[in-house]
Fold:
Amino acid sequence: MANKISNLNVKFSYKNINSEFKKFLKIYKNRPIKNNQGGCRINHAFALYYILKILKPKLVIESGIFKGQTTWLIEKTVPKAKLICIDTNLSKRKYISKKAKYSSVDFKFHDFSKIPTNTLVFFDDHVNHLERIKDAKFFNIKNIIFEDNYNDNNSDFQTIKQLFKNHEFVHNESFLSYLKTILLFLQIMMKKIFSNTYNAFKDLNKIQNRVRDFSFNKYYKNNIKKNIDFYFEFPPLIKIKMKTKKPLFKKINVELNELFAELKFYNYITFIKLK
Structure:
């Protein structure tokens, strides 16, 4: 196991990462969605591309697809891999894959009992990272990417980076959002009252995903670390106004000028390999 981790450390060296950037740019310039506001931009897209190139997974599970930009990138990077795309709201898609299997059912309710060992799950669904690690562990999925690994209070869910800093997430939403949650809960209660066969488990999961407060005890952090073999926060391409690892490049290259507006969008995209 030590040799495998040492090999990962080499593969995730700045030298090896930088060597793939020009190849990535040739693909990224042909992306189907030029303005992917609210979605994955160049910093995270390159990180996803590189991790896929290194791991060469046989199956990629994408949880949270939004407009479909990363679905397209996954297809272009590992064309032989099978692809399962999950989002509770599939109506926002602009790019729809012909080879992917789509589902609006939450990740944890799927049957992944017969998936290949070399499976990668890409989480961009804004669900508590601790819960997603437990879900992946249950399915024996060892390779995880968290697209948003917030460092501060600006998140809308609990991240593993926050957990390591003993930060508990408190979810503050708008009045209309709380009202919608109340109405959803009332619908569930009405079904429970009038139907003896109605099982509320999956619907209650929707409530949990809307009210995302999280509290943990002091042992959580140690237990998570105990289950992680390799943890890597992908650095930004250039220096930005955030406290980050050393950027991949000292200055903007000529080929990055046209993508300048995207370079400021970065949120500690992280690769984790579980034991």
In short: The longest strand covers residues 228-233.
